[in-house]
Amino acid sequence: MPGILLGELFPNFEADTTSGRIKFHDFLGDSWGILFSHPADYTPVCTTELARAAKLTDEFKKRGVKMIALSIDSVEDHKNWSKDVMAYANEAGSPLPFPIIADEKRELSVQLGMLDPDERNKAGLPLTARCVFVIGPDKKLKLSILYPATTGRNFDEILRVIDSLQLTAQKKVATPVDWKPGEKVMVVPSLPDSEATALFPNGVTTKEMPSGKKYLRYTQI
Ligand code: BEZ
């Protein structure tokens, strides 16, 4: 079964991109990374997504996350399509601020489980789905989200999960439903109360539950 699971080492693949040939781990260096795939160039939803990603470059940079896109078209197509993308982003003439991988043979798409069997090109070949992979500085997969070709992604949500991933990588906390940066977080269940009090100087509050079990512990970071 192709694909990659959370916690696995992300493959150190080699690929042709709009910025030349890369080896993925060298491309990432010590940074976090985000790889997002697209069904094809010159398609409407993909154009809106890449334009939004381009507009959010500073937000990804602020978080130390290197961006890279992928679709199954050629480097030349990617380069030409990027001009449309930047025009859609109201930045006509500027280069797309991140590379796009050209996975023309679909080798990487198969390896990473990215093909959507329900979406095919005119030749009947499957297109890539809208995958999001977030990779940590240890080169391990921290998050994957998979959308079908017909549903565009929400990049506010992608930034929000990166904020959660980066926070929970540093502190023994988890982020609750609909959490946004600055809101209270939850102490991880594995941390005993005695250690939680010492670790969180802003205090830990526990919500009373009908079960009497004290598992909903909040703190402010
Ligand atoms: C799009 O990007 O608009 C798209 C691509 C493939 C299938 C459906 C929509």
Automatic annotation (TrEMBL):
Keywords carried by this UniProt record: Antioxidant, Multifunctional enzyme, Oxidoreductase, Peroxidase, Redox-active center
Gene Ontology BP annotations: cell redox homeostasis
Domain Thioredoxin: from-to ranges: 4-167
GO molecular function: 1-acylglycerophosphocholine O-acyltransferase activity; peroxiredoxin activity; phospholipase A2 activity
Coiled-coil stretches noted in the UniProt entry, renumbered to this chain: none
Catalytic activity: a 1-acyl-sn-glycero-3-phosphocholine + an acyl-CoA = a 1,2-diacyl-sn-glycero-3-phosphocholine + CoA; 1-hexadecanoyl-sn-glycero-3-phosphocholine + hexadecanoyl-CoA = 1,2-dihexadecanoyl-sn-glycero-3-phosphocholine + CoA; a 1,2-diacyl-sn-glycero-3-phosphocholine + H2O = a 1-acyl-sn-glycero-3-phosphocholine + a fatty acid + H(+); a hydroperoxide + 2 glutathione = an alcohol + glutathione disulfide + H2O
Alphabetical list of InterPro entries matching this protein: AhpC/TSA, Peroxiredoxin_AhpC-typ, Peroxiredoxin_C, PRX_1cys, Thioredoxin-like_sf, Thioredoxin_domain
Enzyme nomenclature, EC number: 1.11.1.27, 2.3.1.23, 3.1.1.4
Catalytic site: C46
GO CC, alphabetical: cytosol; mitochondrion
Pfam short name (any one): AhpC-TSA
UniProt family annotation: Belongs to the peroxiredoxin family. Prx6 subfamily.
Record's function text: Thiol-specific peroxidase that catalyzes the reduction of hydrogen peroxide and organic hydroperoxides to water and alcohols, respectively.
Protein's name according to its UniProt entry: Peroxiredoxin-6
Highest classification ranks of the organism: Eukaryota, Metazoa, Chordata, Craniata, Vertebrata
